[in-house]
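Q: Hi! First time doing this. I have a protein sequence and I read that you can turn it into a structure. Is that right? Here it is:
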Amino acid sequence: MDQSIEKIRGINQRALAINWTRMAGDHKIPRFEDFDPGARIHDPKKLAVWNVEQSDGEIVLRALFSGTLLNEPFSASWSGKTLEELTPPSLRSDIVSGAHECVRTGCAIYMILRTRDFKGHAIDLERLLLPFGRNGRVEQIVASLQLISLTGTVDRAAIVQEFEVQSKCILSVRIPRVASAKRRPLAATWMPKR
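A: Yes, that's right. Below is the predicted 3D structure, encoded as structure tokens:
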């Protein structure tokens, strides 16, 4: 597992999605051990790897790895904690339902959650979830999280609180597995239930 996590370093979200769709070209859920996207431009400090635990119809996602920029707003490592434990209550519906949709369908999920800083500027959290597993079952999810502000810098220490106060899901797209690396994946809009 540690070697697979090391392979993730250096990739952006678009490149991650393209790499994942090519791996899933035969309509199978790619194996995490085979994930070797190569060095590009994504900062591994913004990545998390979740282990999918399923029991009696319940889905629990437990953190295997989280980059240092993801740990910073929470003042702690995510390792061993569940997605539900880490997600603020006001965001839980969108965040958890997106992860469950990824597990249920075996499709990548791309979401944008938006909040506003104290000056009223929009801050977006772009979230890409990539499912990995065996025999048609999702066993791990690689999550890439990017904070975007077109008008200034993001205060990472306060960002969780800003999302707790006000946030909305402005985009949620399911990226299906495709049969050919030459074909571009078709995206289907999917919105979390509130």
